[in-house]
Specification:
elongated; alpha+beta; Alpha-Beta Plaits
Amino acid sequence: MTSPTSEHKWYALQCLSNHEDKVRKYLFKYKEEDENFSQCLKEVLVPVETVSEVKNGKKKTKRQKVLPRLCICRDEAL
């Protein structure tokens, strides 16, 4: 990940619950189709953490969203 400069800003996109990955995939798909959009959009992140829990004597790990209902985007400043 590159360090943010004065040319780029971070934005939080609010989306429906459990649709964060769909929004991220849609933005990447749209980025491939539109050249102007691909020059503006630099990164799309869905912050997750790996959580381990013991249930019935078995250890399970799962990915849990840190900021539910939010996608974080780095975009060129307009």
